[in-house]
TrEMBL record, chains A, B:
The lineage of its organism: Bacteria, Bacillati, Actinomycetota, Actinomycetes, Streptosporangiales. Belongs to the DprA/Smf family. PANTHER family: PROTEIN SMF (PTHR43022). This is DNA-processing protein DprA. InterPro entries: DprA, DrpA_SLOG.
Length: 378, 378
């Protein structure tokens, strides 16, 4: 109950609150907020921290200001009525990989859907990218997601139009779960245009959020949400990202969290691939072009090695070097005598004749009144 | 004169002939071929070589077989009549970077055109790719070549349809020279469809070949020719390459010769980009997307650094974190009172009011009868 209250009191991803809860438990933290007085050692600890200084007094004021609007009993009742459930660290369904977020670990998660979050995310990949995606990006996201889902990998993404929606749609065409992590309450279902998609995801996967029911999305909540997408999964694939794209923020989280990071190349003439190419150029992301390459990267080492693309073997490749030079010396039209061919190929006459016989038997060359020439079909 | 003769006697890139010439000079080598007897120490040296064994007797037979068809005086006369000139190692115009080819260095080069080969190739880039290129590949090759040429870089490529032709056409739109290295005599101008292009290249650059006049192209000659494209330049850019493409052979030569290697990404749905993506994935090639990135790679270290693509700075970015949270808390429609906004933003009322005032002055928010709301235009 204290955690549910704190999910209203503190912003999502508030590391100061995370630190307070880690030190005093959720009830202890809530108690300090209610009393309007933070533990002195805790304040000293904050002051000793490197980096951007935190003003504990202002933070406390902000938290206290929200207390009057905090009603955990009502939140739980509202969530349940909507069909959602709340999980907190320690629950069986809690994905322990979120512990990598340290003090930014969410206080709790609202889940709405049929899948088990912890189980679904054991083998999961994030597919992220631009909202204003190109048809190429949408196609690639859907194809990758479908192939990964077919191979048993859960897809995790946001709930936006563009790459997010294409990835979920692709995943639904496969067999695995698909998980949408929203920057608003699970009941808000933003954007409204994806309402039907969210319905399908609840039936075959999950809608996840650290925001209490009814909370609207904001720019900051989107950025904070991205850390969850990166943390839940073994790695993130950026399908399309303009130079200013939230997907690159998720990519940053993946790097910080030491998750795998992959990017899909695209036409260099497309602004929506600039972010992907930059990640590849900086060697921050691995260049991936197929679902198998994604799996090879994300899977445990040696588990799933992707087959290298191979050139087809042509019949011509099976010829030895000498036969090949004789074949090269045979003209396509008119015809040439064996002596001319031998000189051109750099072999003696008997060698040329023996190779010509073999090449003729194999259908490469033919003898005409004018001499040897290539057979049309070769 | 002896070199001109040997260019008929031996195949292009014949390392055994290269070794013989290195040991005995061109005249000494030609003399041994004429006498039909190779130096005993030389034969012993060949026998002691690691790798694929060479049969000196057979090689000698092949060379001798071509002696009757060898007429250096006629070759020189024919070349001159066509307007071409011959250069050999030691000439002022000889590009000494070809020495990196070791015994596979060409015996001589036929040049046809107005440019100086050595000077043109001081700052040069090879642009190579598929003959059966896509419109995307042709566009990229032409744009890259034009921008590189505009920046004073000579373009080197083959003479094929597709990427080669697009690169030369792009280069002709710039200001620098363009050099076509052919796998046939400079007068053969294969393929015939590029005849007009070759004319333009002779006027603004060079047609280059190690084949004597009149020699027709063969598959082997194309592969051998590729080493010249790689060796002449500071590096090679692969624009499009299917999994089985001659461009990948040039890329191999670039790696072996420790030249730079770059590849242009493309749609993963295009078979013509598979070779490029494989080079990038294996970290054999650097992923490049602009001419500046190519120049950064190929130029002397620190000479030309490419600007990183940067996101545009939006006015919103200039706001401090506190202003931003207040702005985020202002609703887009209806309106909210300053107290509500303060709670949502996590600041006290006075702070909220002061930021709202500043945001209003900057045109982000406006005050209505219903409270504060975002201004439409933001």
């Amino acid at each position: 109950m204290a955690r549910v209250a704190l999910m209203r009191v503190a912003d999502a991803g508030d590391a100061v609150m995370g630190r307070l809860v880690a030190g005093f438990g959720a009830e202890g933290a809530l108690d300090q907020v209610r009393r309007g007085k933070l533990d002195a050692d805790f304040v000293a600890e904050l002051a000793a921290m490197r980096g951007k200084p935190v003003d504990p007094g202002r933070r406390l004021t902000a938290w206290r200001g929200r207390l009057p609007f905090t009603d955990p009993v009502a939140d739980l009742a509202r969530g349940r009525k909507l069909g959602a459930r709340l999980i907190v660290p320690g629950d069986v369904e809690w994905p322990t990989q979120l512990d990598d977020l340290g003090y930014e670990r969410p206080l709790g998660l609202w889940l709405h859907g049929s899948a088990d979050l912890r189980f679904a995310c054991l083998r999961s990949v994030a597919i992220v990218g631009s909202r204003a995606a190109t048809p190429y990006g949408m196609h690639v996201a859907a194809e990758l997601a479908a192939a990964l889902s077919e191979a048993g990998w859960t897809i995790v993404s946001g709930g936006a139009h563009g790459i997010d929606a294409a990835a979920h749609r692709g995943a639904l065409a496969g067999v695995a779960e698909t998980v949408g992590v929203l920057a608003c309450g699970t009941d808000v279902a933003y954007p409204a245009g994806n309402h039907g998609l969210f319905e399908a995801m609840r039936a075959r996967g999950l809608i996840v959020s650290e925001c209490p029911p009814g909370v609207r999305p904001t720019r900051l909540r989107f950025l904070v949400r991205n850390r969850l997408i990166a943390a839940l999964t073994r790695g993130t694939v950026v399908v399309e990202a303009a130079i200013r794209s939230g997907a690159l923020n998720t990519a940053c989280h993946a790097i910080t969290l030491r998750r795998h990071l992959a990017a899909v190349p695209g036409p260099i003439t497309s602004g929506n691939s600039i972010g992907c190419h930059r990640l590849i150029r900086r060697a921050e992301a691995v260049c991936v072009t197929t679902a198998r390459e994604v799996i090879e990267l994300m899977a445990a080492i040696g588990d799933d090695l992707s087959p290298e693309p191979r050139a087809p073997v042509l019949p011509r490749d099976r010829l030895d070097a000498e036969s090949r030079s004789v074949l090269e010396a045979v003209p396509a039209r008119s015809g040439a005598g064996p002596a001319t061919i031998a000189v051109s190929a750099g072999v003696d006459l008997m060698t040329a004749l023996s190779h010509l016989g073999a090449l003729s038997a194999a259908g490469y060359v033919e003898r005409t009144d004018l001499g040897w020439r290539l057979r049309r079909s070769t």
